[in-house]
Amino acid sequence: MNKILLIIPAYNEEKNISRVYKSIINYNKKNHQNYDVIVINDGSRDNTEKILVDNDIPHIKLIHNLGIGGAVQTGYKYAYENGYDIAVQFDGDGQHDINYVKNIVNPIINKECDMCIGSRFISNQKKGFQSSATRRLGISIISFNIKLKTRKKIYDTTSGFRAINRDIIKLFSESYPIEYPEPISTVSVINTGYKVLEKHVIMHERIGGKSSIGSWKNAYYMINVVLSIILSRKRVK
Amino acid sequence: MSDNLRFLLVIFSLILFLITLNLISKNKIPIRYSLCWIFSSLLLFLVGIFPGFIYVITKLIGFETISNMVIGIILVLLLFITLVLTIIVSGQQRKINLLIQEISILKKDVK
User: Fold this and answer.
1) How many CB pairs under 8 A join A and B?
2) CA-to-CA distance for A33 and A204, rounded, in angstroms?
3) Which of A145, A165, A185, B59 makes the best surface tag, with the fewest CB within 10 Å?
4) What pLDDT score was predicted for residue A135?
5) Mean pLDDT for chain A?
6) Is residue A237 one of the residues assigned to a domain?
7) If we measure between CA atoms, which residue out of A32, A10, A30 comes closest to residue A90?
8) B92 located within any domain
9) Whole-number Å distance between alpha carbons of B94 and A69
């Protein structure tokens, strides 16, 4: 039996976090699953912490805001120290659907890959939230750069819905990008020689709160991500 | 290079040197980070005392006047020091991140 941990980074998610947590608990009961949850409260300035405490949600409160990468990495460190076999990054804003966790966890249990990305773009039936046109353009530019660098096509490069095995939990707990971590960490996983797969999932439009990628930051985001992909190096396991 | 400029260079480099020594002796900065300032002040001091060799380099590189060359040297020094500072700041950022993460995980376990 694999020990599976859902890592939920939360920054100012007072509107969503308890609903997301309840959906996981309900799913566990209905399907006799045993997904553990750890919420990483990344120095929220709203009532997120109070909601976490009042509802008895297992969480780590960062003593200072770190940004999404630093928050998720805290979750990976926790997963590594507590002997989890698989860690899933799961957003706290309602974008990710608990019913699809098995789609990205099963390939890892079956040893098909070391890391599995929940992808909105690989199925012919484009259902669910597909992001805006500009965002999709950015994603395909990043995808092109990853293909150039690693010869591997990743379609949903910015998807935060990902499952990783214990080897990569160890890798990520040692080194993980602080800002915009998804595309860059995917590249470093491929560069290290691990196998990455994409599986189709359906995502929802975020229900409340604001995306961590603000509109004025888009240019900076692209420069940051593309540069770090181009400058990434091959590593040994 | 005019005598006035040489005089100024020597005086300023001496002041910079003394300030750096003072900071070290008061334990305000470690030797490690003071070395770039000590070397910078020594270089400027030498330029002020022996402008002969700087004259040769000035002609070699193609600066019009020695004073431009001096400004050029200072500019390169400052760029280099800023770059080193960026490296130091980034290293500290990493360490702070690590501390925040480890302390936060510890605090959860203690509760």
Assistant:
1) 34
2) 22
3) B59
4) 80
5) 89
6) no
7) A10
8) no
9) 12
Chain A contacts of B101, Cβ < 8 Å?
62, 66, 70, 73-74, 77
Q: Is residue B78 part of a domain?
A: yes
Q: Which residue numbers in chain A have pLDDT < 50?
A: none
Q: Do B104 and A63 touch (CB under 8 A)?
A: yes
Q: Which of A97, A67, A70 is nearest to A6 (CA)?
A: A97
Mutate to test the interface with A, among B95, B96, B101 (most CBs of A within 10 A): B101
| Residue of A11, A49, A77, A82 to mutate when probing chain B, most B C-beta within 10 A | A77
Mutant choice from B96, B104, B109, B111 vs A, greatest count of A C-beta within 10 A: B104
**Chain segment A140-173, per-residue pLDDT in tens:** 889 998 998 888 899 898 899 999 999 999 999 9
**pLDDT reading at B3 higher than 90:** no
Could you give the C-alpha distances from B87 to B23, B79, B80, B90, in angstroms and in order?
22, 13, 11, 5
Number of domain units in chain B: 1
Q: Is A236 a domain residue?
A: no
Q: Which residues of B touch A (CB under 8 A)?
A: 93, 97, 100-105, 107-108
pLDDT the model gives residue A124: 66
CB atoms within 10 A of CB A110: 8
Taking all residues of chain B, what is their mean pLDDT, rounded to a whole number? 90
Query: Is B68 a domain residue?
Result: yes
pLDDT of residue B64: 86
The answer as to whether A235 is a domain residue is: no
Distance from CA of B107 to the nearest CA of A (A): 8
| pLDDT recorded at residue A63 | 96
CB-based burial label for A118 (10 Å; 0-12, 13-18, 19+): buried
**Contact between chains at B103 and A78 (C-beta distance less than 8 A):** no
